[in-house]
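Below is just one:
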Amino acid sequence: MFELSLVELAIIALVALLVLGPEKLPRAARTVGLYARKARQSWYGIKADIERELAADDLKRSMQGHAEAAKRSARALQRELTGPIDSGDTLDAGDARGVAASSAAATPTATAPLPAAPAGGGDAGSRGSGPDDAGREPGGTPRDR
């Protein structure tokens, strides 16, 4: 903002001391500092407001550009979907069978059998209702196989 060298500041302080005197100089310096601080805060506030407005305008322009691009894409897609079908795009009976076979081949099927239910009719986590891991009944005697 202002470019004052150390020599220039010393000359201003000396003139202020001569004009105001030693009793009024500290109060005057505080007042000048207060007004300089308020001016700086006001300047930064105005600068921040302008930057916010510019950012909002940039964002608005960007959003409008994206909206226009989306509208153009939607119109092109609509024209593509509702446009006339070319005679080369039709399927005959042989093509339809080929498409059905390829879609059936692409469909996953389950080939592995489901696991068998645990012996004893209970769930695997139940205790005391069936044989244990060693093939013994809960009483401790081996079971017949």
Observations:
- The first helix runs from residue 6 to 82.
- Helices lie at 6-82, 93-106.
- Residues 6-82 form one domain.
- The radius of gyration is 45 Å.
